[in-house]
Every structure is written in structure tokens, then in C-alpha cells.
Design goal:
Structural class: alpha+beta
Oligomer: single chain
Largest sheet: 4 strands, antiparallel
Distance between the termini: 64 Å
Strand order of the largest sheet: 1-2-3-4
Strand content: 5-15%
Number of helices: 20
Length: 422
């Protein structure tokens, strides 16, 4: 038994030596790997097992005291590892927060960014363990508050690194973790302050941040624009995220397309069904078919069938406004079927290549005013549709009479339309 205890002490001493060596050599990768708290980290499993069998872990951990306050930090951090592997997530979070406080206190004094990776590991652990702790508290009939506490601590971290200096390069990662917490808690309004700090920075160009952080940032800010019904800004940000996303990360591409597809539909761009099938976005297939056919009933049925999913995603209101697009498609089909009746309708200005089979409709939402659709002579099957939109006057009221031809803008949309990124 004594020999077993000595072996355990040596393994724990080896872990402490790894920490002290990485601190002395400023090896950020080794330091970060030693601090990771997850189910696959071999260091965490070893430390947890050692703490279960040693009588006085504090005696060994005190070897790090010369790097104070990291000796205190390591004591709490190893305790968090032990609680995590025992599935005691509330206790793990409490110890982890104490460890993170001690680490941040020391990190403020370091001029270089060598420990940035370790900081990110701690930030990630706070969020993920906080979520687990909240689930444990909810199961025990207590009000969850650990994830909210993690958000408050991450704001302290953000404040420590978002100022002028090389450490600012890590601010976007912390921002993205904050976004994940705020979206999880349903407090997305709290994103505004950190967005303002990033967007108005004079010390760092956005393109200087790591690509994966830029993609995540644009994904979440694009979702915020969807919630605010600003489809043009949402399209720009989500497109940025999609174009720079790792093409082998299918799950990440699906997450982006889940919001980009309804945004593009609102702008009059229809994806192929093969794209929706490939990324398991079947909930949009009937919506696209309804837009192509002018089938209002099919659109309403699709919205009803996926109502809960669309509401949870925050895209229901965007999709609901597509009904006016479907009506315009339906009217266009009527125009082709009954051309004499169409000749008596008001028309938008004449366009090159078009025929008089046109009509003028009101298009609501997204900052657009009056509009119409023009059918080209070259394609009687109806695959060449031109949506003509006129901007409202600056005062917001629609002017009487026809709008000058110069005020019209043409967007071509076809039944097989595709965007470059699609």
C-alpha cells in the first residue's frame, strides 16, 4: 500500500513538474494542454486518479509556490479536475472559477502573449463546465446560475485583454465564448457592448484576428441581424462566415446555412434542393418549392410543420414575410395564363428583352417600396424572372404616379438560381 502511495505521489509530482517547466520555458501549448478539463484529456484523468489516492496533495502542489499565485491556482484547478471526473459539476465549476481568478491575476502582469492559449482553455472550460453545472442544479431543483457567473467572469477577461497591446489578439475568442453564453441564456442584448468594442477598435484590424474566431464572430453577429430583421447585413455577415469556413467542417457549414438560407430567400435567391439535402436542411425544401410554384398553401403548411424549429432558430418572422413573394409568383403565372387581363394592369418601366406581360405589386418589408416582375421573351417556360424593386422616397411615403426609370433596380432570379457560395 505504501508503495502504491509513493507511485501516486510521483505521478502527481510529474504533473507539477510539467507545469513548472512550461512556465519556466514559456511553452504555451504544453501549459494549455496540462490545464484542459474535458473527458479526453489524459492529464486531467491522471490528476483526478492521483487525488483520489493521495492523502496530502497540497504538499506536492506547493512546489509551484515560487510561481505564486499559480500555486493557489493549481490547487483549485486540480480539485476542479477531480470533481469533473466524479461528475460533480457544480463543485468543479466553483473550484474552476477560483483557479481562473488566480490565473487572471497573474496573467495581467505578463507582457507577452505566450499564455494566450492557456487563457482560452480556461475560458472554454468555464463555459462548458458552467453549462453542465446548470443542468446538475436544475435536476436537483435549484435555480441554475453558474453559466451566468461564467459570463460575468468572461467579461472580466475581456476587459483585461481588449485594450491596446498584443494580448488584444485573443479578445475575439473570448467574445465568441460570450456570444455562446448569451445565446444559451437568451440574453442576446448583452452582446451589444462587446460588439461595439470590437467594431470600433482603433488598435486592431479585424482581419488580424485568427480566421476561426472571425468566422464564429460573423456567424453570431449575422444571427443577431436576422433577429433584428436586417437581412442585408445578415446576408453580408453570414456570407463572410460561409466563405471562410473550413470546407471539411460540414456541421459548421450547416449551422451557417441554417440562417443564410432564409436570409437569401428573403432577398429573392433560391438554393438548389440538393444543397438543402446535403446539409440536412429539409425543413426549407417545401418553402423553396412554394416560392417557385407560387403555392401559398404549401408555404403555410411548411411553416406550420416546422413552426417550433423556426421559432427556436429565430427565423420564423423572416420566413413568414415570404408570403408576399409567393403571391407575386402566383400573379405572374396568372399573367401568363391570362395575358389580356394583364395588359390592363399598371406596369413598371420597360426593360430591354422584356414583353408587356408585367404587373406592379407592393412589396413590404426590408426597406423596399413598390416593385414588379418582368417576364422575358426569350424564355416562355418562365425560368427567367426579373424582380423589379423601387426604393421608397427618403421621407418614407410612396410618391404618386410612376417612378422614374432610373429609380428601378433589377435582380434576376431563376428557378435554378444559385449564388457563388452555394
Amino acid at each position: 500500500m505504501e508503495g502504491s502511495g509513493g507511485f501516486v505521489d510521483r505521478r502527481l509530482a510529474d504533473y507539477v513538474s510539467l507545469i513548472t517547466d512550461s512556465l519556466a520555458s514559456q511553452d504555451g501549448s504544453a501549459f494549455a494542454a496540462a490545464l484542459a478539463i474535458n473527458a479526453t484529456n489524459s492529464y486531467a484523468e491522471t490528476v483526478s486518479s492521483c487525488l483520489d489516492h493521495t492523502k496530502d496533495p497540497a504538499r506536492i502542489l506547493k512546489q509551484v509556490d515560487k510561481h505564486a499565485p499559480l500555486g493557489e491556482m493549481l490547487l483549485h484547478h486540480t480539485r476542479a479536475m477531480q470533481c469533473y471526473h466524479q461528475n460533480r459539476y457544480v463543485d468543479a465549476y466553483n473550484s474552476l472559477e477560483k483557479s481562473a481568478n488566480a490565473f487572471l491575476q497573474e496573467y495581467r502582469n505578463w507582457e507577452s502573449t505566450w499564455a494566450m492559449e492557456a487563457l482560452h482553455v480556461i475560458v472554454y472550460a468555464l463555459r462548458t463546465v458552467g453549462e453542465m453545472a446548470d443542468r446538475e442544479m436544475a435536476m436537483n431543483g435549484k435555480a441554475p446560475d453558474k453559466l451566468k457567473g461564467a459570463g460575468s467572469f468572461l467579461m472580466k477577461v475581456f476587459g483585461a485583454i481588449q485594450g491596446k497591446g498584443p494580448k488584444r489578439v485573443g479578445a475575439l475568442y473570448v467574445t465568441c465564448q460570450l456570444f455562446k453564453i448569451y445565446f444559451k441564456l437568451g440574453t442576446v442584448h448583452m452582446c451589444r457592448s462587446v460588439i461595439r468594442s470590437i467594431d470600433t477598435s482603433r488598435f486592431f484590424d479585424f482581419e488580424d484576428f485568427p480566421a476561426k474566431d472571425r468566422v464564429t464572430y460573423m456567424y453570431y453577429t449575422g444571427r443577431l441581424e436576422v433577429f433584428n430583421d436586417n437581412v442585408s447585413a445578415a446576408d453580408r455577415k453570414l456570407t463572410y462566415a460561409l466563405e471562410r469556413c473550413d470546407p471539411f467542417k460540414k456541421a459548421n457549414i450547416r449551422m451557417i446555412l441554417k440562417y443564410l438560407v432564409p436570409v437569401r430567400l428573403a432577398l429573392g435567391v433560391l438554393p438548389k434542393e440538393s444543397l438543402l439535402t446535403k446539409y440536412n436542411l429539409s425543413e426549407y425544401i417545401d418553402v423553396v418549392r412554394a416560392l417557385k410554384r407560387g403555392d401559398v398553401r404549401l408555404l403555410r403548411r411548411a411553416l406550420k410543420a416546422n413552426e417550433n424549429n423556426f421559432f427556436r432558430s429565430g427565423v420564423y418572422l423572416v420566413l413568414e414575410k415570404l408570403e408576399s413573394h409567393v403571391y407575386r409568383r402566383l400573379l405572374r403565372k396568372m399573367c401568363i395564363q391570362y395575358p389580356k387581363a394583364a395588359g390592363s394592369w399598371p406596369r413598371p418601366p420597360s426593360q430591354d428583352g422584356g414583353d408587356p406581360k408585367s404587373y406592379e405589386v407592393a412589396r413590404g418589408g426590408h426597406g423596399h417600396g413598390r416593385g414588379g416582375m418582368l417576364h422575358g421573351n426569350s424564355d416562355p417556360q418562365g425560368t427567367d424572372e426579373r424582380l423589379l424593386f423601387a426604393q421608397e422616397p427618403s421621407g418614407g411615403a410612396e410618391q404618386a404616379g410612376p417612378l422614374p426609370e432610373a429609380r428601378w433596380a433589377t435582380t434576376t432570379v431563376t428557378a435554378t438560381a444559385k449564388v457563388r457560395i452555394y
